[in-house]
Amino acid sequence: MSESPSLSVRYCRFVARQAGVILILVAMVFAGAVALATRLQLKTAFVELLPSNDPGVVALAKVQQRMGDLSLLLIGVRSPDKGANIRYAEALTAKLRALPPSVCALATYNVSDLKAFFEANKWLYLSEDDLTNVRDRLRKEVSKRKNPLTLDLSDDEETIDQMRERITQQDKLGGKFPGGVFSNKEGTYLWVAALPPGGIFGERSGEELYYTAKRLLGELDGKQFHPELATNLMGPVAGAVITRAAVESDILWVTISCAFIVALSIGLYFRRIRVVPLIGIPAVVGTVIAFAVAQVAFGYVNSSTAFLGSIILGNGINYGIILMSRYYEERATGISSAEALERAVDGSVRGTGVAAICASGAYASLMLTSFRGFFQFGVMGAAGSIACWLVTFTMLPALLTVLDRRAKALDKRAAPLSLAWLGRVVAGRTTALLVVSIALTVLSVRGVVHFGETPFEYNFRNLNVRTDSTPAAEEFADQQDALFRRWPQPYIVLADRTEDVGPIKEAIRRQDQKAKAIGQIVTIYDILPGTSEEQRTKLALLADIRKMVHDPALDAVDEKERKQLKEIDPPTDLRVLVPDDLPPLARRPFTEVDGSIGKVVLVYYAEKGLSVMNGRDLLRIADVIQRIDLPDGRKLETSGNAVVFSAMLRSVLRDGPIATAAALVVVLALIILVMRPLPAAAMAILSLVIGVAWMVGAAGWAEVKITFLNFIALPITFGIGAEYALNVVSRFQQGRDMVRAVASTGAAVALCSWTTIVGYGSLLAARNRALQGFGAMAILGEVACLTAAVVALPSLILWLERRRHRSLSPQLGEPPDPV
Fold first, then answer.
1. ∠ at Cα 562 (557, 565), nearest 5°?
2. 460-482: pLDDT as tens digits
3. Separation between Cα atoms, residue 222 and residue 623, nearest integer Å
4. Which residues neighbour 426 within 8 Å (Cβ) at sequence distance 6 or greater?
5. Burial class of residue 379 (count of CB atoms within 10 Å of its CB; 0-12, 13-18, 19+)
6. Stated pTM of the model
7. pLDDT at position 627 over 70
8. Alpha helices (H) in 499-591, listed in sequence order
9. CA pseudo-torsion sign 203, 205, 211, 212
């Protein structure tokens, strides 16, 4: 009785009968996936990577609901002529102010209205002590005039002239902005400040203002004002828009370059152009399905998952490579296309299936974390791995059935390229390669020690987007930093009640006693000359001063003294000032969306000794302002870039080890459960462990630092590394010939690894340095796991086989097997 065909053979025959239907169904699925994927939004805000329930993220959402952010667009103007710079800035400001409030909420190049306000109300900005001293000094002067015999024993009395100088020379702006404009002292650099209605933490906030300002700069020809006049868009808003544009550009070019190199590599390996679309189309369909899943699950991609297209494509194409490699290898023996397809599917479906499940499980382990950057990466990666395998083993057999139904037999030259030379090297240098493998594994302990110390990357310059810069742009940036320093982007603390702002200031100062991380803390009452009660006290003192100045006893003073007295004569129209009296530039930072004023506290970090590009400094700031303990026992949660970074660091260091351990457990369990016999599973596990050890060791010797992205390279490597070992071991189990397994399947596995390396390698061309670091770490894992699968594991197996043969040969009376 003939043996019944295997399940995979029956499946191939079913595909042969329903090939057209299968292709139509796949096309329909692909069309639906495209419709969903094209609706995806890109969100590059850093907060999109964080757990949505993190206190810092929750506090940030509340801030955005009440007032957004205070990030500015700064438009730099440069020429050697200060007058030309001012005229250009004036013309540009007029155009910006003509824009709708939904685009530009405020625009100015000077603080003239603020300086005029301070000048008109300078008497109210004197302290009570100063006003008391002025009143007492005038009172003494009047007494002396009325009674020349009055004896004054004061030996440190301030003259009227000194009083005048102290009163008239006060500067509420602290010497900043010479001439009342946003310029350096020479006037060669000048800035126009524009405020969008939203904030930098809001997605696409300020983007319309940025591009509108860019258009206005093109329309307003600076050469008409001065031949050397140049402009530059700067500030937090410009930085956010430029970063987003760089990410969008990188997504396009990374995907295109990855697809081109992968296609070229496949064509060269199989020496057939038609293989490129045959293998590529199923991988593309699977990749699009992964993005469709993202649309259904999240509705957007973030700055890390946006680049998953090239990674899923580079890894998902592996299943087609293994299947096609085996198919052409069988065709080269002279059998029919139908029989070759049946043998190819039967020989590759188990190994690739287990590999796909392991890769998907490794990705899925990231879903155990609360860090959204990990979680969403895991969902898309897991869906993409399974989708690529399913589409490959449905669509590709159907395509081959349709295209090769009447194909002629192929000769041996039609087989794909092989690694026969590597098989010979492994067979001939088994012991040496095994010794080297053991030595490398021992040296890898250095990596474990290195990462055990949690070497996190705290230098943000190594994580942000690398933008094209010129010496002129760098000079603009240096001049901007020197003038504005911390001003464009303070931390915002929102009080629940107006009366809380004072206690909040005191609490922050109290909590900052050790850290010394906080500089200025500003409320609306620091811009006003005090509270209403304080102002009324000052007005009473000013009334006394005015009375003294106009006392008849001083009518006899000479002309010089009369002039001095006039300069210290308070105006009669002074009154209690309220927030609505302040100019827009001073009032806007303290105004909430609903129009209320007075519950906003602006906190600036210390200007000396801290940098927002230093993660450790941000942690110092976050320790002070993240949770403010008020005197009545209430706790106020705040947010800002320091708090967000602190949340990210906590999440990565908490979730990273969880994801890594879960991925390892999942992959090992899947290999043990699915791979048979158990010795084959043990071989695959050993290869995986060796590859991961080499990866960690190399990263440790290279002093690689942990970031919020490269941490996930390790759990992903578990899944991908297992794939290579599983395919080699699966082929070895079929013929018990390790040299042939290395030569044939090893070559296909090498191509698989190469296409995956291309997917990761394309990230090295991205301008996001965090992505570059992730790509480099993942490539280390690829090289290490591939080498372990095609060199270290075969060397160990051959060495063990030879030992077994030598131990058996005296008993059997035959020479040992040379293999």
1. 115
2. 777 776 666 678 778 888 888 77
3. 46
4. 433, 738, 739, 742, 790, 791, 794, 795, 798
5. buried
6. 0.73
7. yes
8. 501-511, 524-527, 532-549, 559-567, 584-587
9. positive
